[in-house]
């Protein structure tokens, strides 16, 4: 259900899939019935579908009427039209009339057909039973009397002499239809007595009577068609062509529905995967560093690729097979039940029980493995990513062999899990096939006895076997898909975990409070000037026992520069990350032009800030696209100006392609200093109100560092500048310097003031520069 929940926005496609699959299932379930009809009717019966003939001669119909009641004779007469010149009557009734005639007319046809061939007289009387024989006035033949009361040919019964003249020659041998007609004409036998004989014979046939009646009645119809001048070969051919065309039509409908269902499933699953990738990346881009820390980069990549691919693949199978299998299974069970009491239902029950046991065992073995598999994929990707990105230090320290062993360990764990689950799948298929074959043999064996006993026909047995196999196949399909569902289930949980994670840095434009604008008291919107203030700001990472930043306050105005310095790990980067709201202050406030950044629209806030992180990350493309990353529509003049300020113009213009020179992913085809200068140019290109450099000059030589700071002083006079640095020379000319130690401000002022008043700053400065460079007298050096 976790996987199916991704279809909530595609209900129409899901409904379409269900409709198509139901039509396909209905069409495929109809094929065995048609095949059964072709075998039983088209081949065995010569294409004759009903025991009620379409055309029949007057003589044949008269013979049948001898065994019918007056009401039945009336029904038959009304269903057939007047005789033509050849003495043939055609069926003119409806299909309802035909169904009403089939029962009693078929019984009459069986009797006429048997009597036409001749029936031993003693067998006929015995089959009628004692009551029927008495009704006919017959005496036991052992007493030596003539049958049917014809002791004396001179008796007064009408036709007695004619009857007596014929019967003595056949009594003890056979009685045929001509004998019956003779007895009726002589008045010795009445219609009521023949109808009673018909009823007694049907009672004697018992449960198999309907099958016997139908087969014998069809033979009568064949003979009746021959008497009526109908070509039996043409009847059979017409039936086979008609039923074959219908069967082909159903097969074509099933194929078209299968193609449409597959197309719909693939298209819908692809849309779901596309939307999920979009949603995942959109959510990840909204994450603050706190949320990014909760998911490793390797895990996020795996969730956005492998996990979503698993979901897409399973959704295709679910919309194609998981929905189709129940339609086929339920329909096939209904068809099997529709066969009535065949005595074969227990075979299906036993087969399903065995299959359920096999499925239960396999699922109990494979489920834990599938749940672990995605974690192993994460681990494998993480190790591979670490090795690939850290290839240089690995080679430098000669750790290639140990890293290969570490990757092999992760790879072996994943491979072992794959092998185990695949072996389980390989074991399942032959077991299922063996169960299917055993069921087929059982149906043929026990069904064959039913055919021999006359309780089943060959076509019905074939159809029954087909429906049984479809029930088993439905379970097999669900089983095969069910093995994949645990992986999809885990993948769904992992993707939903990303989508359910909200950023701790919320955009107020989407909240109840809304974003706060820079407005006058009269409600007029003011332009942003870029006055940055920290008011007693403290910050602690989620779950941390101690705050990283404590009670920091300062203000930087446009045209001013603030330097932040301190030893490694004191919170300098954390401090400047509060400005563009990569994190939110836990106490105090960070404001721009007096507006709390937590009340500003994120997009608008970050458009005011040019932020250069410690690691100068570049993107694949060219130099111009990387500099114009903040605004792709920047004119070339702005791009070139930013490059000049960042001291990047010289090395760019030395390249053959200039600003169109390609940049590989991560900027690996340029040096560290060049990468850092391009990152600085990218921040300058958008002409921000606030410039934040997070130790962004560390890869620059002193000459380039000095030239860049001088260019900033000239070209960025309208911006408030915040520089985090490790080198004193980078910030010594700043208007204000903050010295951090363990997250606290231990010194704040100009370079000269801090040299005299802050021991921590003096120690850092004297460790990097000489007394002369610092402007200190010998007496001030301690």
Automatic annotation (TrEMBL):
ABC transporter domain residues: 532-767
UniProt record similarity statement: Belongs to the ABC transporter superfamily. Siderophore-Fe(3+) uptake transporter (SIUT) (TC 3.A.1.21) family.
Taxonomic placement: Bacteria, Bacillati, Actinomycetota, Coriobacteriia, Coriobacteriales
The protein, known as: ABC transporter, ATP-binding protein
Pfam families: ABC_membrane, ABC_tran
GO cellular component: plasma membrane
Keywords, alphabetical: ATP-binding, Cell membrane, Membrane, Nucleotide-binding, Transmembrane, Transmembrane helix, Transport
GO molecular function list: ABC-type transporter activity; ATP binding; ATP hydrolysis activity
Record localization: Cell inner membrane
Ranges for domain ABC transmembrane type-1: 244-487
Membrane topology designation: Multi-pass membrane protein
Main location, first listed in the record: membrane
Top-level taxonomic group: Bacteria
Transmembrane region(s): 245-265, 313-334, 346-365, 427-447, 467-485
Provenance organism: Collinsella stercoris DSM 13279
